[in-house]
Amino acid sequence: MGGSDNPYAGSFGNQMTASASFGGQPAADAAAAGDLIKETTTASFARDVLEASRQQPVLVDFWAPWCGPCKQLTPIIEKVVKEAAGRVKLVKMNIDDHPSIAGQLGIQSIPAVIAFVGGRPVDGFMGAIPESQIKQFIDRIAGPPVDDAKAEVEAVLADAKALFEAGDVQNAAGLYGAVLQAEPENADAIAGMVECMIALGQLAEARQALSQLPEELGKTAAIGAISKKLDQIEEARKLGDPVQLEHQLAVNPDDHAARLKLAKIRNVEGDRAGAADHLLLIMKRDRSFEDDAARRELLSFFEVWGPKDPATIAARRKLSALLFS
């Protein structure tokens, strides 16, 4: 499903006001501008290395023009530093022109690379080592690489969820739509957008959107849960008047069929605790009713609510107490 055939694009038209953009100027571009790789001198060493290393790790490459292994190392370490995308800086020092710093550090052989963190040397290596070992060295100093784009998408999804839970459905939809522009098959964003459609009463559009998904996406937990939620809403619409069902239960508290229907209705109304209590009461009075239908329905609720939802946690405790008492 590409961006051009994204079924969610424009679903809310101009009603959406929230937006998000992904990806800024790559850090590798900064390297081309000299921000990540530079030459230093004895006079500028404190600024270029000691002070800079308080912000991010700095690798100092001690070299000389006559050094053959230095010439082998230079293109490799510069390539790896650029690929590290800002996790480290590389500062090069010609020891023929500026021998004092290398002497203070006790460097007797070049090439030598010393890593500075927090204004202090913390690790290093000597010789023209392979690219893979340089990458391992940087990972050890700066930590493993972080997928910034993934982290950014996750942050936008979290913001969208918070907006939705606060009742700002339109802006939540805007953020979900922004994610889908960048990642058209992001299951969490699709599920969030469909949930926004449901909240706005666009049930037919929600069903159509789900029907257009590739089979593999339909198998994800997020899509499975929102699909089941839509099923529950559509079923509840056919179960009758909740006031009438309440009346039937007042006359006959053991009318489990009426109670099961009322539980399904209360669930889609948002009364999760009430829905769970109705099902638990059926289980307490008649576990065999419709082949343990109440327990099966409660588990279906949990799937839609999610394992961390307070209603799920509370109902699970009551369920365990009922089953193992």
TrEMBL record:
User: Per its UniProt record, what SUPFAM superfamilies does this chain match?
Assistant: Thioredoxin-like, TPR-like
Q: What's a GO biological-process term for it? A: cell redox homeostasis
Q: Which residues form the Thioredoxin domain?
A: 25-143
Keyword terms = Disulfide bond, Electron transport, Redox-active center, Transport
Origin: domain of life: Bacteria
Q: What do the Gene Ontology cellular component annotations say?
A: cytosol
One of the entry's Gene Ontology molecular-function terms is: protein-disulfide reductase activity
What family name appears in the similarity comment? Belongs to the thioredoxin family.
Q: Which NCBIfam families match?
A: thioredoxin
Q: Which PANTHER family match?
A: GEO12009P1
Q: What is this protein called?
A: Thioredoxin
Q: Which organism is it from?
A: Sinorhizobium glycinis
Q: What does the record give as the organism's lineage?
A: Bacteria, Pseudomonadati, Pseudomonadota, Alphaproteobacteria, Hyphomicrobiales
